[in-house]
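Database export, one record per block. Field names are fixed; values are copied verbatim from the stored entry.
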Amino acid sequence: MRRLIVSVLVLGLFVSLVAAYPARAQEGPKGPCFDFDLDEAVQVLPRVSMVVVGEVIEAVPGERAIIEPSLYLKGPTSAEELMLPYRETESGCNSAELPAGERVLLVLGREDGRVAWPGETQVFLLRDGRAYQGSADGPSQSELELIDRIRGVTGQYSIPAQTEDERARLDWTGTVIPVGLAVLVVFGIGLVLMREWHRIDPS
């Protein structure tokens, strides 16, 4: 009876550990329009859909903006232009302005299966090495410092491929390393369980 109880407890621990990661991964993204505070980056960034640095190459007020990406700090990496359809945001969240020709860092939520038009605090204007949140009059900090802070939470820093050779390369930071670590964790749990089972039932 004692062996049965111990076995059930060990099995329950294993199942809870394995289930914990998918549960966090399936947590819904934050958005589409929200107030982004860098001081809460650790809590907010895991729930957003995309963080991208790029240039606004087209902006039609009240219609759309097109971003040419140069760096992804979260989300699938693609060299394709990113189109943001304009949509009135919910009350209490002011829509951002995305002027053509500006370099920007965007923290994007999702709506109806696609990235959504951001709120003011989800946009950083990148000028002369500085990052201005919301507008040129907003609070600013070093662009490199902002990118490092976000990268420290997301663990991603991927540059869109420009050639076929580059596209063939693996994304070590965003894919290989996380998957490898997950495999090692599961393997380690398996070894612990095998050792525990052998101690309970040496035969």
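Remark 1: The chain is about 35% helix and 25% strand.
Remark 2: The mean pLDDT is 81.
End of record.
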